[in-house]
């Protein structure tokens, strides 16, 4: 009988209870590149609960023209999903609806007529283009702050054109921008270079928040693996993040 090497499926470890709140997820069905159905969203929520999360704040994309979402429609869909999750017995508190706002050609109009769905009070989660820098970013961030908003930049480690040893990261920190890094960046889900950058950002003390950026069940399964990752475990034990204050 030939020898076979069996690979066991990792079991979820509730290590993210130290964070309490996941504040970056794409689980409103059918509005962006995230979950496609309530059933998929509920499956992801159940996995997040098994990993120790107690609360989630959902953050669908607002991106022109790819995801032309409207705040009132997202709020309605959130209410529907919250009711469906309660009916399904999800042991996770849907603590709020916010958005991940792309700084793009339509962002200045959002600043001029603000209707942002916020993470907390007047705190907005924003993102850049992953591959191409945009002109006028600094001015728009400043204008947003002048409107009284605090800014969290989503997954700074994923912007390929930003070098960890350059001046842009430090510039954003000096300007009072908070950073939210992705847990799956630490475990290598996005590749070796992204992992190197996120570890450096965290080591420098620049990361205030961790998020899962869960889009679907593939991400949820990857988070189960991340809960068994020694580097992820060590970072959670060593560093203090602000998720629990949300």
Give your account of this protein's structure:
The chain is an alpha/beta fold. It has helices at residues 38-50, 71-87, 107-112, 137-146, 168-174, 183-186, 192-203, 217-226, 230-238, and strands spanning 21-22, 55-58, 61-62, 93-97, 100-102, 123-127, 150-154, 178-182, 209-211. Helix 5 (168-174) links the parallel strand 7 (150-154) and strand 8 (178-182). It is globular, with a radius of gyration of 18 Å.
Task: Give short descriptive properties of this protein.
246 residues, alpha/beta, TIM Barrel, six-stranded parallel beta sheet, three-stranded parallel beta sheet, 36% helix, globular
Structural topology:
Blueprint: E1 21-22, H1 38-50, E2 55-58, E3 61-62, H2 71-87, E4 93-97, E5 100-102, H3 107-112, E6 123-127, H4 137-146, E7 150-154, H5 168-174, E8 178-182, H6 183-186, H7 192-203, E9 209-211, H8 217-226, H9 230-238
Parallel strand pairs: 1-2, 2-4, 3-5, 5-6, 6-7, 7-8, 8-9
Helix pairs in contact: 1-8
């Amino acid at each position: 009988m030939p020898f076979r090497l069996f690979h066991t499926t990792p079991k979820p470890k509730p290590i993210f209870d130290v964070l309490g709140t996941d504040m970056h997820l794409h689980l409103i069905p059918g509005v962006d590149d995230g979950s496609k159905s309530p059933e998929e969203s509920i499956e992801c929520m159940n996995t997040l609960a098994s990993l120790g999360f107690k609360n989630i704040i959902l953050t669908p994309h607002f991106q022109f023209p790819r995801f032309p979402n409207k705040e009132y429609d997202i709020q309605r869909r959130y209410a529907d999903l919250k009711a469906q999750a309660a009916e399904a017995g999800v042991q996770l508190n849907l603590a709020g609806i916010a958005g991940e706002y792309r700084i793009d050609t339509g962002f200045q109009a959002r600043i001029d007529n603000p209707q942002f769905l916020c993470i907390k009070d007047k705190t907005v989660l924003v993102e850049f283009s992953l591959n191409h820098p945009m002109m006028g970013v600094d001015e728009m961030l400043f204008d947003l702050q002048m409107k009284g908003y605090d800014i969290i930049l989503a997954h700074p480690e994923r912007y390929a054109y930003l070098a960890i040893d350059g001046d842009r990261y430090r510039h954003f920190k000096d300007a009072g921008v908070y950073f939210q890094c992705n847990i799956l960046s630490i475990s290598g889900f996005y590749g070796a270079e992204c992992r190197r950058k996120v570890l450096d950002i965290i080591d420098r003390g620049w990361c205030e928040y961790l998020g899962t950026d869960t889009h679907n069940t593939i991400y949820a399964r990857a988070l189960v693996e991340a809960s068994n990752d020694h580097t992820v475990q060590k970072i959670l034990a060593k560093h203090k993040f602000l998720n629990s204050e949300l």
